[in-house]
Amino acid sequence: MAQYSVVLENVRKVFDDDVQREDFAAVDGISINIEKGEFFTMLGPSGCGKTTTLRLIAGFAEPTEGRVIIDGMDATSLPPYKRPVHTVFQNYALFPHMTVAQNIAYGLKIAGISRDERESRVKDALRMVQLGDLGNRKPAQLSGGQQQRVALARALVNKPAVLLLDEPLGALDLKLRKDMQWELKKLQQLTGITFIYVTHDQEEALTMSDRVAVLSDGKIVQIGTPHEIYSYPKTYFVADFIGESNFIKAQITHSDSDGMTANFANQNYRFTCAVETQQIEGDTALLAIRPEQLVLYQDPKKCKSDWCIPARVSANIFIGSDERVEVALADGQKLRLLLRSSEKNQVGSYQEGDDVFIGIHCTDIRIFNQ
Amino acid sequence: MKFSRLLGPLYYILLAVFLYLPIVFLIIFSFNDSILLALPLEGFTMKWYRAVFQTPELLTAVSNTIWVAFASSLISTVIGGMMAIVTVRYSFRGRKLFSSIATFPMVIPYLVLGIALLLFFNALGIPLNLWTVTIGHVVINLPYAMLIVGARLSDFPAHLEEASMDLGATYWMTLKNITIPIITPALLSAFLSSFTTSFDEFALTFFLTGTENTLPIYIYSQLRFPARLPLAITVASMVIVASSILILISEWLRTVGQVKRSIY
Lengths: 370, 264
Fold this sequence. Notes:
Chain A is of the alpha+beta class. In chain A, 23% of the residues lie in helices and 34% in strands. In chain A, strand 16 (307-319) and strand 17 (322-329) form a beta hairpin.
């Protein structure tokens, strides 16, 4: 038994069409070990190389350099039909001239499974994706959500070792997408199949995945659990791409073995906790902090945070149960806060122009180069 | 305002007069009991139709024509279909150049093409016969076949073939199970349109045929003999009816395909 489901070893892909563009690799040296039964997501903006990486695993393209190992077997040059891997395509790619049942039975038929077994497994698959009695329809007669389920059933019915999903929810509306996120996660846990999921939707990635790899320009920027990625972004790109962040521009006025001092909003703020300052070059830095980690006070005496920064409310928006408040610091930099109404904060209690204090905990801050 | 509203009907009337009226005349005169092609009509007769079937060289010409049309359409459809698959589904270096070269015969006058092919066959010492005509017809039909099949193919995402291979099918199984079923209406349409083109092709055939005649060549040669004119007219009427039917079938197949695509 191989330890990993899929291993990518320093995989690089340069397309023939891109040869003119010097040093441009769609996938530029990616190494990943994906565990058996893991829900692994590759997340990144369009053009970051996530879909190409998926196609290298599926076998639709061959890497220029590096190795692709599936289930302990070197699959670098194997054609797609010899890999224990199935794909759910972005546009579903259902065969238009076949019924739903024929679509789902296709892989089984190719594999030479007997007619009786085919029939019962197709029925099970249809039930699994809650399409029980639609087997005789043509794909064109189904809604987008139903087509999506057929595509899932068509891949899962063959019990692949790995299921690749290329933005499968991209074409669905918001509500359906949220429902399908739950269902996908459940299906994955039920079947125990390794899921490799590609998306540009960070919320989708955080919701479903065991681990997330954030890609940019053909490289992995950060890899970790959704919690690690969200709470401890390693670079400015990740902090900016995943969730919402406030970035405070600051001067590093003092730095020694005990910590450092940042100057912004016309004040010096001393870091009282260990911060990851190793990569800060020069004396300007960006302090990143999530909107929900900022605390708002009207009375500075109540502020028990490490830093209490005077600010003025510049806008507030009521969004259902919560409230979003924008404040301006003394130097004009703006911060956005997310206030939960259930806490001490009372929704609607802040008006534009109110003088307030922003509480920041040192440990909530990440520091990046500008 | 009123005048512009009349433009549409006027267009149709002119179209009918110049395009369809001559054809109607042709068919009427094929039943006219007179050697002279002049009004007034002399009376109804079927004798020209009987005569057609009693003229052996004419029947030979018809069978030659059908043979050439069938062979050249089959070859054009198969090769054109393969070229369509290659150009639509694969990206390779020089693909654009390949497409341009493949569709080039569409813009070369048949006269020029005919002379060029004639020189070519002579240079190679290939004797002229129905095969050389067939090759000529393949050359002119290939681009159309390729474009008809290519248009159909590009209406379907390339992911379909990938999905098939992803599910375990080899390339050839995918071709048989997915690609060919999808492009079948286009293949039939390409075949029929090649067939009709080949059937009444004159210029190229004139240069490339040996001693055997095809129907258009035969009809042309008969025009020199006034007495045989009604016969030529009768054959022409039959050809028009036959090719109209073929074109209608081909168009119907094309729309069948389109309807399928739009609901897909």
